[in-house]
Amino acid sequence: MNQSKPRHFVSEEPFDPYSVEKLSKNQESLYLASQWRLMWWKLKKHRLALISGFILLLFYLVAALAEWFAPYDLHTRTRFIHAPPQAIHLFHEGKFIGPFVYGYNFKLDMNTLKREFSPDKNKIQPIRFFCSGDTYRFWGLLESRFHFVCPSAETLKYDPGIDSLNPTPAYSLISKPQAGELFLLGTDRLGRDLLSRIIYGSRISLTIGLVGIAVSFFLGIVIGGLAGYFGGWVDALVQRLIEVLRSFPEIPLWMALSAVLPVTWSPLLIFLGITIILALLDWTGLARAVRSKLMALREEDYCTAAQLMGAKPGRIIGRHLLPGFMSHLIASASLSIPGMILGETALSFLGLGLRPPITSWGVLLNEAQNINVVALYPWLMLPVVPVIVIILAFNFFGDGLRDAADPYKN
């Protein structure tokens, strides 16, 4: 009986060795890529996280260079009290002038005693860029007057008359030159520019989250790591301490501890005190998560091998166990930072956190507690906008980092 020979199918396409080599290089770059490179490749696929990361970077850049970005110094007062926000214009009567704002006309309503402002279209105040403005000390060290944006150094008067030789309207200095106004977000009860104060306040509100999370993570990882790795009486002691701390209602405890801070303390000491209080109350959740993860990972073979090779507990925890759930730590950090920012904002809003002359978003919102003030001057609520934006940006960016921290998971 004849058995048919197996048929072989051979591709008749010409062999291209370079395409195979190229494919192998791509595979080799993937196999040899470091953990950080794999995380970056996966993070780039998360568009919302990248946009949120850019927003966070922009916020922290503005906070670091607050003196440059703010049009006015933090404590500069003007004669325009509770002035409404000004709109930026480019054209006047069909003629391009560039970025400018209209000056104010001011009158006092004797019936309601309310200051009423209206734009005066005969006063044109060009906005200056990269200019010399209020004097300040950059980070308290170097004295300077440089600003990215400044109010007009002089007010132009619009002359509607038409000269026979010059058919275009004329613009000239007013009879008595004076500095212009630039209140893009309005002013407060002392005539201070609200935009400048929001920019200066971002330095405190954003820094308190980073400093607080550093202290909280240190306590949570160290205490939770010891409880999860050693177990026994160490674990029992840590669990009882966490249960005691978590049994207190959070907001009343914040208020009580913040009220203990002496009023005579300097703003720096109050800032450090609020940060430590928020950090001491925030580490318990992370400590429990670290404990449960370490109790599951300490029985793995690589942990036993490290113990047999004589590795110390600190090296085993930090080098072998913690990287195993780095994605969870990143997610916890992304949620803890906005939580601390909200905590500082809430305490300062209630008058129990940071106090003037120190400036933060919560201190600015403290002026908007009176509903009558908000009804008359609604722009005083604008400091809540950066709080909302920064909280959403941290949550979206943390979600992307959490997924990128485990690049092998689909």
Describe the structure.
The protein folds into two domains: 89-173, no CATH class; 194-404, MetI-like (MetI-like fold), CATH 1.10.3720.10. It contains 14 helices and seven strands. It has helices spanning 17-31, 35-44, 47-64, 66-69, 194-230, 232-247, 250-260, 267-297, 301-308, 313-321, 326-349, 361-366, 371-376, 384-404, and strands at residues 89-92, 95-109, 114-126, 128-138, 142-150, 156-159, 170-173. It has a five-stranded antiparallel β-sheet, with no helix packed on it. Strands 4-5 form a two-stranded antiparallel ribbon. Helix 8 (267-297) packs antiparallel against helix 11. The longest helix has 37 residues, at 194-230.
Secondary structure: elements and pairs:
Elements lengths: L16 H15 L3 H10 L2 H18 L1 H4 L19 E4 L2 E15 L4 E13 L1 E11 L3 E9 L5 E4 L10 E4 L20 H37 L1 H16 L2 H11 L6 H31 L3 H8 L4 H9 L4 H24 L11 H6 L4 H6 L7 H21 L6
Antiparallel strand pairs: 1-2, 2-3, 3-6, 4-5, 6-7
Helix pairs in contact: 2-14, 3-5, 3-14, 5-6, 5-8, 5-11, 6-8, 7-8, 8-11, 9-10, 11-14
* CATH topology tier name of the largest domain: MetI-like fold
Q: Provide the low-confidence segments as ranges.
A: 161-178
- Alpha-carbon distance between the two ends: 54 Å
Q: Give the name of the CATH architecture of the largest domain.
A: Orthogonal Bundle
Corresponding CATH superfamily of the largest domain: MetI-like
- Which overall shape is indicated by the principal axes computed on the Cα atoms? globular
Give the C-alpha Rg: 30 Å
* Strand residues, percent: 5-15%
Q: Main β-sheet: number of strands, strand sense, barrel status?
A: 5 strands, antiparallel
Approximate helicity band: 40-55%
Please give the count of helices: 14
Question: CATH class of the largest domain, anyone?
Answer: Mainly Alpha
Alpha-beta classification? alpha+beta
Series of H and E elements: HHHHEEEEEEEHHHHHHHHHH
The order of strands across the largest sheet is 1-2-3-6-7
Strands, count: 7
- The number of distinct structural domains comes to 2
**Kindly state the mean pLDDT as a whole number?**
78
